[in-house]
């Protein structure tokens, strides 16, 4: 089994990421931290606790993390997720548990270090403040984890998959570009970061057929199924209203969980690139990739002239966008 620590900002699609992480037989969800993003810290934390209550997984510890990036104010997305961060249903239960006390970054560190060496994946489906702080405060965790899988970024490989918060930037990266850049340029993580950008998530839509399947046919319609149907219906509407995407909303966040599922259930076609994040000006939050063949020349050229070795951080991205 792969152990997972999920850092998230639920969020309609984060809800599906949580369910996949909690229910997949080859994954063991060891804890959840919440981060500013789709809504306020209070809202996203309550949403995480309600969702765990809805699926009967109240034993998974939930810690409230950073309520803002350390270099800029927080940005939320009420136009996409509603003012609660997860509008659209009356079926979310009151949380049966409360969040755990204590510092979230320390809790992440302690829980992850208890897992066997290189078996734990950190999956980040929100802004990257908590994960960047974890690596900065506890550098030894970097060698201990197996990998980090991040929903974030947009490379513009498909016309409808450029930015979603600005024309250049994807929301999770835009909200805290400095934290993203600190992770993407950490050479200790080279080869162990996977980025799931909009270019990929916009090919995985929750179509009306999928919504219908949730509540009909061979399955008995449980309250949970009805709630998930409500959530996707709301998400479909905001995607149609805000982006004009009418085929169904992209289900971004569960894909970041899917990349760490052990086994060959899904065939991933990834390639390694370097990723830079724009941290200033109107293009803030844009992710720019350099493919390995081009980057190699730069690194070799500079490296030979200087110290001989340039630490490079290779990041896996879906090949179709590289
Ligand atoms: C990302 O932004 C959030 O609104 C979603 O939950 C997802 O993590 C997509 O850009
Ligand atoms: Ca999210």
Automatic annotation (TrEMBL):
<protein>
    <submittedName>
        <fullName>Inosine/uridine-preferring nucleoside hydrolase</fullName>
    </submittedName>
</protein>
<comment type="similarity">
    <text>Belongs to the IUNH family.</text>
</comment>
<dbReference type="Pfam" id="PF01156">
    <property type="entry name" value="IU_nuc_hydro"/>
</dbReference>
<dbReference type="InterPro" id="IPR001910">
    <property type="entry name" value="Inosine/uridine_hydrolase_dom"/>
</dbReference>
<dbReference type="InterPro" id="IPR036452">
    <property type="entry name" value="Ribo_hydro-like"/>
</dbReference>
<feature type="domain" description="Inosine/uridine-preferring nucleoside hydrolase">
    <location>
        <begin position="4"/>
        <end position="322"/>
    </location>
</feature>
<dbReference type="InterPro" id="IPR023186">
    <property type="entry name" value="IUNH"/>
</dbReference>
<dbReference type="GO" id="GO:0008477">
    <property type="term" value="F:purine nucleosidase activity"/>
</dbReference>
<dbReference type="GO" id="GO:0006152">
    <property type="term" value="P:purine nucleoside catabolic process"/>
</dbReference>
<keyword id="KW-0326">Glycosidase</keyword>
<dbReference type="GO" id="GO:0005829">
    <property type="term" value="C:cytosol"/>
</dbReference>
<keyword id="KW-0378">Hydrolase</keyword>
């Amino acid at each position: 089994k792969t152990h997972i620590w999920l850092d998230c900002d639920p969020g309609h699609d984060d809800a599906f990421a949580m369910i996949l992480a909690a229910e997949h037989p080859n994954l063991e969800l060891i804890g959840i931290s919440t981060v500013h993003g789709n809504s306020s810290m209070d809202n996203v934390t309550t949403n995480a606790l309600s969702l765990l209550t809805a699926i009967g997984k109240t034993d998974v510890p939930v810690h409230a993390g950073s309520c803002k990036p350390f270099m800029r104010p927080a940005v939320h997305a009420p136009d996409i997720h509603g003012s609660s961060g997860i509008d659209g249903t009356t079926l979310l239960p009151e949380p049966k548990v409360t969040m755990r006390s204590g510092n979230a970054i320390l809790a992440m560190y302690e829980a992850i270090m208890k897992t066997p060496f290189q078996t734990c994946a950190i999956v980040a489906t929100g802004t990257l403040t908590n994960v960047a702080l974890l690596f900065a405060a506890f550098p030894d965790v970097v060698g201990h984890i197996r990998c980090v899988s991040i929903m974030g970024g947009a490379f513009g490989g498909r016309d409808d998959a450029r930015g979603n918060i600005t024309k250049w930037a994807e929301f999770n990266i835009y909200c805290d570009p400095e934290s993203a850049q600190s992770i993407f340029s950490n050479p200790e993580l080279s080869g162990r970061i996977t980025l799931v950008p909009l270019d990929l998530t916009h090919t995985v839509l929750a179509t009306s057929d999928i919504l219908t399947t949730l509540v009909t046919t061979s399955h008995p319609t449980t309250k949970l199924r009805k709630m998930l149907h409500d959530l996707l219906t709301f998400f479909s509407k905001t995607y149609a209203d805000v982006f004009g995407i009418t085929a169904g909303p992209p289900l971004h966040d569960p894909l970041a969980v899917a990349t760490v599922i052990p086994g060959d259930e899904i065939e991933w076609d990834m390639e390694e690139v370097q990723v830079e994040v724009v941290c200033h000006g109107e293009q803030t939050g844009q992710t720019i990739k350099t493919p390995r063949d081009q980057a190699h020349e730069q690194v070799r050229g500079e490296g030979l002239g200087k110290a001989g070795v340039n630490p490079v951080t290779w990041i896996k991205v879906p090949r179709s966008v590289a």
